[in-house]
Amino acid sequence: MKIVVTFALESEFARWRRVSRFERVSGASVPTYLVRRREAEVYAVLTGVGMRSVQNELRDLLSKSADFCISSGLAGGLRNEHRAGAILVAKAVKTSGTDREIKTDDSLVEAAGQCGAVAVDFFFTSNAIVNSPAEKLRLGEIAAAVDLETFRVLREAEEFGVPAVAVRALSDAVETNMAIDFNRIIDHRGQMAWLPALHQIARAPKRVPELIRFGFESSRAARHLAHFLDRYVQVLIGTFRIRDASFELRRAETK
Fold it and tell me: Cβ of 197: how many Cβ atoms within 10 Å?
């Protein structure tokens, strides 16, 4: 059994990496990690913000008999009922520039709910980081959370016929006003360039407490996500084994 989990950044994945003892896969074109659980292989792929990193590694894993794909990481909350730190699972994903929606796998959504995630109708994949509460409220009319990768990840999984789901931990609530413009500190690889961030902070030192608060909430959300994914993957492995055993039993009975 093979499960592929995606994250944009190392900071979103670091907690789960330590807890589950992932090991880096040598020779991969983008940072890719592996841990073996019973009869399963769990891969974590870091795509960069907005899927700006090379996608060949993800496509290669999906094309080689992946059983499930989980688009994961942090997201911004768009509605008052979902607070920072909450774990959400989406039934479908939207993006800008198209009316198309990509539905997630019903059984994967159900399993996520059993593990404590709150099921919502939609996530929205934006082309840029949403910094202002006003913009979040506008997007909240069509989705419960916003990120920059999920639609693209699910589109790749759909191409290879891999059942997929979107699970996100909220790093910020709808009323949170970002202390800095994160769009200006993401480089061409989809990584955070901290020198431009320091320049922004130096120009507005009064916003440092807000940035510290955001960092604390993001770290807490990443911890919640790590604990959730650990449970979730175990449930998926167990469910798969039960279904596989049931299939083998039925096949034996028909012989």
Answer: 17
